[in-house]
Sequence to fold (301 residues):
Amino acid sequence: MSRTASEIATQPGCWRRAAEAAAFDGLPRPGERVAVTGCGTSWFMAIAYAALREAAGQGETDAYPSSEFPAGRPYDRVVAITRSGTTTEVLELLGELRGRVATVALTADPGTPVMAAADAVAVLDWADEESVVQTRFATTALAFLRAGLEASGPLPAGVKTVAAAVVDAELAVTEPLDAAVVSAEQWTFLGRGWTYGLAQEAGLKMREAAGAWTESYPAMEYRHGPISITGPHRVAWVFGRLPEGLAGDVARVGGTLVAHATADPMADLIRAQRLAVELAESKGYDPDRPRNLSRSVILSS
Fold:
């Protein structure tokens, strides 16, 4: 078993611990205007949390990749997600914001520059990874932020608690993957609201680990063009609620639909992570050390 596969399997326990640790003073408070930022996988987790927080009525929340952050826009608090704590774009942004807006960072490594760059730092070191590919740190960071929302008020209708998500995750780490999904030649990931960030992350994971042909879209945009790519031996995978009529549309063009509508979408992401590892190994790739990637992007000055 690859190190990545082993780390994927530990996610239910990591989420439980994240929920216990979420009584953290630096998290956004209801009513604050907040921006969430990160790079790569962390940006997609930022997108998911921002949509979830705003849907919960806890305040206007935006998400940006750190390199595209509108630093002149007023916010009460900025949340930065950085597993390594060394990513150049994140550190430069936190330096630019210092003294102007409250900042909080989520990281896996307390021995990195982010500890001094942000006003507050939540260290989720139990979710750190040896693999270059992010899996459990990303979902644990999102679980931590979700638990913070739970502590501050009611969740949006249909969104499960982190405790309930853990139960779904325990099934997702062991349930066999559908043979038609594993043998497909192309995968399109779809989501609405906060699950769109998860769809983007699923597509990225497949590209990173397996070099797979994947695309990601908001679910309601799928029929505005992207459905043209779907057909036999191609998958349309929906995170969360299935839009009305979409199943029939996928069937009409001969595609394979994946929709675990009753499962927590974050638990469903685990299935996509597992698929990425299985595909990588079937091609002879090392999912722990994917081509052209490193644990952190550190740019020269």
Observations:
- The CA atoms of residues 94 and 117 lie 6 Å apart.
- The longest helix spans residues 265-282.
